[in-house]
Amino acid sequence: MKEAPYLALEARFHRLGALREAGRVLQWDRATMMPEGGAVARAEQLATLKVMGHELLTDAALPDLLAAAESDNTLDDWQRANLREMRRQWRHATALPSDLVAALSKASSACEMAWRRARPADDFAAILPDLARLLDLVREVAAAKAAQLGKSPYEALLDAYEPDGSTAEIDRLFDRLAAILPDLIDDALAHQQAMPAEIPPGPFPIATQRAAGLRLMAALGFDFAHGRLDVSLHPFCGGTPDDVRITTRYDEADFTRALMAVLHETGHALYERGLPASWRRQPVGAARGMSLHESQSLLVEMQVCRSREFLAFAAPLLRASFGGDGAAWGADNLHRLYTRVQRSLIRVDADEVTYPAHVILRYRLERAMIAGTLDPASLPQAWREGMQALVGIAPPDDRNGCLQDVHWYDGAWGYFPTYTLGAMTAAQLFDTAKHADPAIVSGVARGEFAPLLQWLRTNVHAHASRYTTVELIARATGRPLDAAVFEAHLRARYLA
Q1: What pLDDT does residue 138 have?
Q2: pLDDT of 169-184, one tens digit each?
Q3: Under 8 Å between Cβ of 282 and 13
């Protein structure tokens, strides 16, 4: 008996999902465990997996199967949403020939490994040839996808991370933020002068930092039977929903940065674990775009873990972990410390007020490089000028400037705007959640996170990619994404 077209598609995409999971675990290993000598072989392995996945998506039988399945009136809502996402992936894939996919994968791996050497050496010149080669390939990909999707080249890249994302909408939101941020940063800095924070004395042994992070991860609901915490040059969440790998980096002189990085990545991990198991390895079962993914990490880190309620719970734990004593370890001081605003150079360590400025800068620079109006050789100077204008500080070197993030160097172009879109979404989701269930905020103060996790599971995680991002936000909060909620949150926390 001939298999129904939709079921045949599910079988094909299940294989594709398994290939992608294998690739994500190999990428995690490359960033955490792999010796440098394995780089060439690993690049070949990852390129092969990507080509195999690309061949599955570009198989000649797929268009007929998609068309036949789309005419099947017996499919339910989940299956139709799955079919929609299948076609979206097919359109992306068929825009690119296999040799371009392989070339991009290898160039990304080579550039990422070069970045690992160049950043600590503060040597942008050393990585420039790899970056230029990679950017040429990214532009080629952007042009091919733009023609297929009917979008601008930048939007074609953005669509891989933020489905149906619009530069016009991002410009509207970001231009509004860029207009208010300089004054908001000035006001927040002035406001906090009356409430200085005392930095607890170190050193803070890495093993102790790790133990404290693991304890808070467990309190938040991280499932250690299906995940782990490791160290990498750049904190990230990888792996698969059933094997979530998160990383951080430690500084024995400052426990605060690593701890918040752990909590941030835990938010990502909770989302991955909450995706519906019945739709594993199907497009509809995947996370719904990176702005929504970032909303989950930022909701945990910024909305919850930097709140007074959370720090009232965490302060005794941290004091006991590090053997601290005195006012520096009190909840009030830790709250001032974790909500301190400063003109910092590093995005991943930036506070909640200046962070959007970091993202806006990267968004504008990558758009210019994709458009060809900014040569990568001019990136360091453009970075310094942009940081001065938006954040009020310029980096003295490239290690703390344009070399600080891995994204461009491993081929992730069009990703950066999702961070601040995610921050706006996080503010709106948490504002809705805490008004819908008062037990959420009171639970956080007691270290009970089940009410919050349950709300997120029900309203966000369980839907995966069943709805578009716009639809999901509207269903969860009762309205479209509204930047005013994020603005109100910043003013209430930092100026009240």
Answers
A1: 97
A2: 999 999 989 999 999 9
A3: yes
User: Which residues fall within 8 angstroms of residue 42, CB to CB, at 6 or more apart?
Assistant: 26, 29, 30, 34, 109
Instruction: Name every residue whose Cβ is closer than 8 Å to that of residue 303 and which is 6 or more positions away in sequence.
Output: 426, 427, 430, 489
Q: Is 265 a catalytic residue?
A: yes
Backbone angles phi, psi at 470, to 5 degrees: -60, -45
Output the six-digit token pair for 219.
């309190």
Calculate helix-pair angle for 124-149, 98-121, nearest 10 degrees. Answer: 150
* 149-185 burial: b if 16+ Cβ within 10 Å, else e: bebbbbbbbbbbbbbebebeebeebbeebbeebeebb
Residue ranges of E strands in 65-162: none
Q: Give me the torsion for CA of 98, 104, 105, 111, rounded to 10°.
A: 170
349/335 Cα distance (integer angstroms): 16
- DSSP-derived letter for residue 73 is T
| pLDDT tens column, 136-151 | 999 999 999 999 999 9
CA distances from 107 to 121, 135, 253, 363 (A): 21, 9, 36, 22
Distance between CA atoms of residues 376 and 292, nearest Å: 30
| Residue 13 and residue 32 in contact, taking contact as beta carbons nearer than 8 Å | no
Domain 168-494: assigned CATH number = 1.10.1370.30
Q: What is the pLDDT of residue 3?
A: 73
Whether the pLDDT of residue 194 is over 90: the answer is: no
| Residue whose entry in the numeric block shows the structure tokens 């990498």 | 232
Angle at 75 between CA 70 and CA 76, to 5 degrees: 130
| pLDDT, tens digit, 9 for 90 and up, residues 55-86 | 999 999 999 999 999 999 999 999 999 999 99
Residue 438's CB is within 10 A of a number of other CB atoms, namely 10
Residue 151: name the closest of 134, 166, 133 by CA.
166
CB burial class (10 A; 0-12, 13-18, 19+) of residue 320? exposed
**Rounded-to-integer distance, Cα 420 and Cα 298, Å:** 9
Kindly report the number of other CB atoms within 10 A of residue 376's CB atom: 20
From the list 21, 155, 265, 352, the catalytic residue is 265
Every domain of the chain and the residues it spans: 5-162, 168-494
**Torsion of the alpha carbons at 142, 23, 470 and 75, rounded to the nearest 10:** 110
> Nearest-CA neighbor of 413 among 168, 166, 214, 139?
139
User: Which residue from 215, 297, 212 is spatially nearest to 255, judged by alpha carbons?
Assistant: 212
Return d(Cα 256, Cα 59) in angstroms, integer: 49
Burial (Cβ within 10 Å: 0-12, 13-18, ≥19) of residue 269: buried
CA 106 to chain centroid, in Å, comes to 23
Q: 373: number of CA atoms within 13 Å, CB side?
A: 7
